[in-house]
Amino acid sequence: MPALSARLRLVLLRMTRRLWFRAALYALVGVTTALLGTVLRPWLPEGMAARIGASAVGNILGILASSMLAVTTFSLSTMVAAYSTAGSSATPRAAILLVEDSIAQRALATFIGVFLFSVVGLIALSTGIYGDSGRVVLFGVTIVMIVVIVVTLLRWIEQLSKLGRVAETIDRVERAARHALLKRAAAPHLSAADWEPPPADAFVLHGGQVGYVAHVDLATLQSLAEEHGLTVWVEAVAGHFATPEAPLARLSPRPEPGVHEQFLDAFVITDQRDFEQDPRFGLVVLTEVAQRALSPAVNDPGTAIDVLGTVTRLLCDWAAAARHAAGDGHRPRPTPRHPRVRLRALDPRELLEDVFTPLARDSAGMLEVAIRLHKSLATLAALGNPSLRDAARAQAARALQLADARLVLAEDRDRLHEIAAWRNLT
């Protein structure tokens, strides 16, 4: 069942990002390794344990077990504090990226895995199932575990020095947003056909849930459309807020009674937006970081300026990738894999509204931030994309109106109008 497999892939993808999954995997490896000595014992010569000092392995495992438990407890408390700091100083929406940090997960998983390895090894030693030859294997694996711990601790210490800082949070959100934006730029319609307005009498597909669209299984829509001889216009892509009244898609010609319910299985709706499938969500989270920095309680215009530079870089990279994917007009466009499904490309106007509409309002009284905002818009307008240029002009006009109402000094307003003169030149 294609719909089931799509949902299963989404569940598995999210499960592998959870801390408990990696910790359980490492713990399983640790327990298996600890019991490896009982399997390899018959192939090792007697007396080797005494020659290499493997009899001390019990003391070493005891030290590892006690120290790893303390290190794990300390690391967890540090991570919780970092999550709280990121949520209060940046935005709560960025905390999920810290939770899914691979370095932190590997570190905690290693500590828990080595702890369980040590406990299982001590239990096995106390029962005498190893023997002298089995102690040799356990001793060798313990030395390897110590090397792994040292390397992990060094990386973990470096990571702790950055975890939870606003600059690090911005970098993480930028990486997540860039991945989603460039992925969408390479396939503007997600391998579906280009968007065309649906017929006026097209059947409107409504969902029965309230939440955010996390995934749209285009393969399922294509399969069902071929089976029933329909064309599907996807109205709700990943990140869209779905309600019982809002259309998820439109079908033409009108399907037989009951057929439309099969199309609902292609839409996965959850209670939160996701960075992976939703390219606009990263821009929204970056904007929230800047808005918090501009609040009177924080009063950190430097962070807002940093976010504006980050967003400008992301949108420039997206525009360049989209231009490269479109080619020079001489190459034939690839045939869509889902020709019966039509889906909109990203709208530059919406991308700029996600960022510049709230920031123009919140920074209207700060000349230094307003200057950077107009310089960012000028950069985007000069990229050669007509839609992006028109959207940048509209945002600049709105920002100027807000700044004129908030800036006290006439010379500040004149300075801003001078910088925004690009609107009449591009």
What is the CA-atom radius of gyration, in angstroms?
A: 28 Å
Count, helices: 17
- Largest sheet strand order: 1-8-4-6-2
What is the molecular shape? Answer: flat
Low-confidence stretches: 49-54
Oligomer: single chain
Summarize the structure.
With 426 residues, the chain is an alpha/beta fold. It has 17 helices and eight strands. Helix content is 65%, strand content 8%.
Verbal overview:
The chain has 426 residues and is an alpha/beta fold. It has 17 helices and eight strands. It has a five-stranded mixed sheet with strand order 1-8-4-6-2. The chain has a three-stranded antiparallel sheet with strand order 5-3-7, with no helix packed on it. Helix 9 runs parallel beside helix 13 (301-326), helix 12 (279-294) runs antiparallel to helix 13 and helix 15 (367-381) packs parallel to helix 17. It comes from Dyella lutea. InterPro entries: DUF2254_membrane (IPR018723). The chain crosses the membrane at residues 20-40, 60-86, 107-130, 136-157.
What keyword list fits this structure?
426 residues, alpha/beta, five-stranded mixed beta sheet, three-stranded antiparallel beta sheet, 17 helices, transmembrane, transmembrane helix, DUF2254 domain-containing protein, DUF2254_membrane
Give the arrangement of secondary structure elements.
Layout: H1 2-16, H2 19-34, H3 36-40, H4 48-52, H5 57-89, H6 95-99, H7 102-127, H8 131-160, H9 166-186, E1 192-193, E2 203-206, E3 211-216, H10 218-228, E4 231-234, E5 241-242, E6 247-252, H11 260-264, E7 267-270, H12 279-294, H13 301-326, E8 338-343, H14 348-362, H15 367-381, H16 386-406, H17 410-419
Parallel strand pairs: 1-8, 4-8
Antiparallel strand pairs: 2-6, 3-5, 3-7, 4-6
Helix pairs in contact: 2-7, 5-7, 5-8, 7-8, 9-12, 9-13, 12-13, 12-14, 13-15, 14-16, 15-16, 15-17
